[in-house]
Design a protein that fits this description.
Layout (H helix, E strand, L loop, with lengths): L2 H5 E12 L2 E12 L3 E6 L5 H8 L7 E6 L2 E2 L5 H8 L2 E4 L11 H12 L4 H14 L16 H12 L6 E5 L7 H18 L2 E5 L3 H6 L3 E6 L2 E6 L1 H4 L5 H8 L1 H4 L7
Parallel strand pairs: 3-8, 3-9, 6-7, 7-8
Antiparallel strand pairs: 1-2, 1-4, 4-5, 9-10
The protein binds adenosine-5'-triphosphate.
GO molecular function, one term: ATP binding
Keywords: ATP-binding, Nucleotide-binding, Transport
Protein name: Phospholipid/cholesterol/gamma-HCH transport system ATP-binding protein
């Protein structure tokens, strides 16, 4: 493995992705360091989900280069591709739990699909993951419709962690949660980063999450990453979109009002 692959979990270089005549990502480059929590911000419809989905291979790229944990994601299908895919877990925007399966069965699902192991071992791993994300035993056999929004996100996170990935992709993990539940979820992500050494790639509009949990923040505008660095640096950025995002009317509302 080359020296850069030891530093970076994800390397995206000169990536172009589009649909028909629309170019969404226009020669975009971004490196995500191993073990960091990277927050991705950008305008609605700006291409954050497209970037995430292209990295994990759900959307084809037109050109450019993507490497995950030192592997070119394009090279080799079958076994090699499966081993790359097993290095990440994904929490989609809508939680996306299977509604006909209980919390525990949802977490068992990837174990059953990807590994050969006894039912008992699947149960043990699933319950360990549910405990890790703070779901109490009374809730393990509930169906998604019986769980709160915050619990659903936690179960979805437990499922994303089922195969012990080294990277997790989170698409707006705190959307729809009240500020207390969102703060608890942020804390959980931070704890998992430190205890498991996870690399976290997180799309979010949540200013508090960006400020509290992200080691670095990347801003996507006009199909490119226009600024990347710790939040303190992003706040100093001269880029017009980044300035508008962090210093616009809504973020100003976070400051106490001067009467
Ligand atoms: N499968 C697809 N086919 C065609 N167009 C698509 C597809 N997926 C996304 N797009 C288009 O790509 C653009 C970027 O969408 P994307 O979902 O990445 O935005 P986003 O930055 O995640 O927005 P939001 O913050 O609102 O979730 C949009 O114009 C969208 O319509």
């Amino acid at each position: 493995m080359d020296a850069l692959a030891e530093i970076y979990a994800i390397r995206v270089a000169d990536l172009v992705v589009g649909f028909g005549r629309q170019t969404v990502l226009d020669h975009l480059s971004l490196d995500v360091r191993r073990g960091e929590i990277l927050g991705l911000v950008g305008a609605s419809g700006g291409g954050k989900s497209v970037l995430m989905r292209t990295i994990i291979g759900l959307i084809p790229k037109q050109s450019g280069h993507i490497e995950v944990m030192g592997h070119d994601t394009e090279r080799g299908f079958g076994r090699a591709r499966a081993s790359v895919a097993a290095t990440w877990g994904i929490l989609f925007q809508q939680g996306a739990l299977f509604s006909s399966l209980t919390a525990r069965q949802n977490v068992k699902f990837p174990l059953r699909e990807m590994l050969e192991m006894s039912e008992q071992l699947q149960d043990e791993i699933a319950t360990a993951k549910l405990e890790m994300v703070g779901i109490a035993p009374d809730d393990w056999d509930k169906y998604p419709s019986q769980l709160s929004g915050g619990m659903t996100k936690r179960v979805a996170l437990a499922r994303a962690l089922a195969l012990d990935p080294s990277i997790v992709f989170l698409d707006e993990p705190t959307s729809g949660l009240d500020p207390i539940a969102a703060g608890d979820f942020d804390q959980l992500i931070k704890t998992l980063q430190t205890t498991l050494g996870l690399t976290v790639f997180m799309v979010t509009h949540d200013l508090a999450s960006l400020n509290v949990v992200c080691d670095r923040v990347a801003a996507l505008a006009d199909g490119k990453i226009v600024a990347v660095g710790p939040m303190s640096e992003l706040l100093q950025s001269d880029h017009p979109w980044v300035r508008a995002y962090f210093h616009g009317k809504r973020s100003a509302m976070l400051q106490p009002r001067q009467n």
